[in-house]
Design a protein that fits this description.
There is one protein chain. The N terminus and C terminus are likely disordered. The chain has 524 residues and is an alpha/beta fold. The longest helix has 26 residues. The strands form 2 sheets. A 6-stranded antiparallel beta sheet has the order 4-3-6-1-2-5. A 5-stranded parallel beta sheet has the order 9-8-7-10-11, sandwiched between helices. 45% of the residues are buried. The chain is built from 14 helices and 11 strands.
């Protein structure tokens, strides 16, 4: 589902060793990741047949009795999406060609609220002035009828309503649903197991988040199509092909029908088939289009490894071919030590004339990729890069000021944005708040202060939690006003959430606040 701006989110304890290359050697190309020429038409989906339904030859699909795949962190973006249709995409979503917005959906909360009428009790003890000599201890009051409850009105298309009802039904057992889905997939299609990482904990989370995003935006063509196109392009690096999508759809519907059996019927199944088919086709077409102009991945050699602190390194790499991106974007990255485990990192500079790319990496507890990059990687090692993604970029058609909040290694894309403004010759004001828990964590403050000395329009303020006893989002309230600024946030998920609230309270409209998906910080 869409992407972190700074931190590695890996966690877990074990993983596979061998892979398609070894450290410090140019890797051979794997069978699953072989670069193949694309076709403009892309691929088309075969008809979906839910798991357990009779096959054309009368055989039924085997189902695991109580299968739960092994757990631990997973790779990047192999979510099985959620909305679809067997006809063309435009049959379901009119106006697909009308320039989808690049922002990634950030809010995965799609559970519909329940409302009910409150029951008001009446005091029947006494009514002053009543006649007839009735004793107060014996009131003559007819029995009261309970207040009528009004069912909440569900908005959206018929398919969207059924999809959301399904997701609400399986919410309490989401872990079981995703585990069962992958168990079905690997039992019925064992050849697909090689596309996934050895451990599946994070992978299961990604599937659920993709479904939640699809369910929430199923009627919002502009947002959902942009999200799905990004997923389709990103899936190329895993070796995903058009023929894989029907298998995923069948097993997904099989898992949902099992755990949403209380509400599952033919109408619900038909809605999911249409939903999944349409979403899959958007992804397939986006991948086919991207295949004509870019590789599925880039090999990149580490040229410098600068250990700034015991757990933070600045890693600079040289791609094997030109790598186009924009300041503020991020990419997915795979190391030779953990094949098929991808993590997202932001570019720490604007595009450079020498073609080099830099990343700020903090080793997190039990982080597979982050610890490998900080503690094992050395110049000469070869890594792989996925395509660039992210919408936290500067609009150079305006002259609005920039308010940038960077927490920890979140300063990396902020630094890239400052360089981008400088390269375009803009004189717009740029205010940077650099947050850290301790002064030791301000590992790149010297670089930011040098930029401030060179550019009079740039102001850099360090906010240290343990000294100021104030968190980064709260610090911006002492400055401003900010209502004429575009805001950019990068850092830990908690900082982004509180930062968005603080910026809104400071008068910045939501549409002028940019950050990459909070959920992707944890999932990708």
């Amino acid at each position: 589902m869409d992407a972190p701006t700074t931190t590695s989110a890996d966690n877990g304890t074990s993983g596979g060793g061998g892979g398609w290359f070894t450290p410090r050697k140019q890797p051979p190309t794997s069978q699953s990741g072989e670069r193949e020429p694309g076709t403009p038409e892309g691929g088309r989906l075969a008809a979906l047949r839910p798991v357990g339904r009779p096959a054309p030859d009368g055989e039924s699909t085997p189902e695991p009795e109580d299968a739960t795949p092994p757990g631990a962190p997973g790779h990047a973006h192999t979510e099985a999406p959620g909305h679809a249709r067997t006809e063309t995409v435009s049959d379901v979503w009119p106006g697909l060609s009308g320039g989808a917005r690049t922002e990634t959906p950030h809010d995965d909360n799609v559970w519909l609220g329940r409302s009910g009428g409150a029951h008001t009790e009446t005091n029947h003890d006494a009514w002053p002035g009543s006649s007839g000599g009735a004793a107060l201890s014996e009131p003559r009051v007819p029995a009261q009828r309970p207040a009528r409850r009004t069912a909440p009105v569900e908005e959206g298309s018929p398919d969207a309503i059924l999809v959301r009802r399904t997701m609400a039904e399986v919410a309490p057992v989401a872990d079981k649903v995703t585990s069962y889905f992958y168990a079905l997939l690997f039992v019925r299609h064992p050849d697909l197991r090689q596309l996934f990482p050895a451990a599946m904990d994070t992978q299961r989370d990604r599937l659920l988040k993709a479904l939640l995003t699809a369910a929430e935006h199923v009627d919002n063509t502009e947002i959902l199509v942009a999200y799905l196109k990004n997923l389709g392009r990103g899936h190329r690096k895993y070796g995903t092909r058009p023929e894989h999508y029907p298998a995923v759809g069948e097993c997904l519907i099989g898992a949902l029908s099992k755990y949403a059996s209380a509400i599952w019927d033919a109408e619900t199944e038909a809605a999911w088939v249409r939903t999944y088919t349409t979403i899959s086709q958007v992804m397939i077409d986006a991948a086919a289009e991207d295949e004509l102009r870019a590789p599925a991945w880039w090999h990149a050699e580490i040229v410098t490894h600068d250990l700034r602190t015991p757990d933070i390194a600045v890693v600079t790499v040289r791609p094997d071919q030109p790598y186009p991106f924009l300041a503020g974007q991020y990419t997915s990255l795979e190391t030779p030590w953990w094949p098929r485990v991808w993590r997202h990192y932001s570019f720490a500079s604007a595009p450079r004339s020498d073609g080099l790319l830099s990343f700020h990496v903090k080793a997190v507890p039990a982080g597979w990729v982050s610890n490998a990059l900080v503690h094992r990687a050395r110049p000469g090692d070869i890594i792989r890069l996925g395509p660039p993604a992210g919408s936290m970029t500067v609009d150079h058609t305006t002259d609005s000021g920039l308010l940038c909040l960077g927490g920890g290694t979140g300063i990396a894309p902020i630094k890239a944005l400052v360089e981008d403004v400088a390269e375009h010759g803009d004189r717009r004001p740029v205010e940077v708040f650099y947050g850290a828990r301790t002064d030791h964590d301000l590992y790149d403050i010297d670089t930011m202060l040098r930029l401030q000395q060179v550019h009079p329009w740039l102001s850099v303020r360090a906010v240290i939690d343990e000294l100021a006893h104030v968190q980064l989002p709260d610090a911006i309230r002492a400055y401003g006003p900010w209502n004429e600024y575009d805001a950019f946030l990068s850092g830990p998920p908690g900082m982004i959430r509180s930062g968005v609230d603080a910026l809104r309270n400071a008068g910045i409209p939501s549409e002028r606040i940019r950050h990459d998906s909070v959920e992707e910080l944890v999932a990708l």
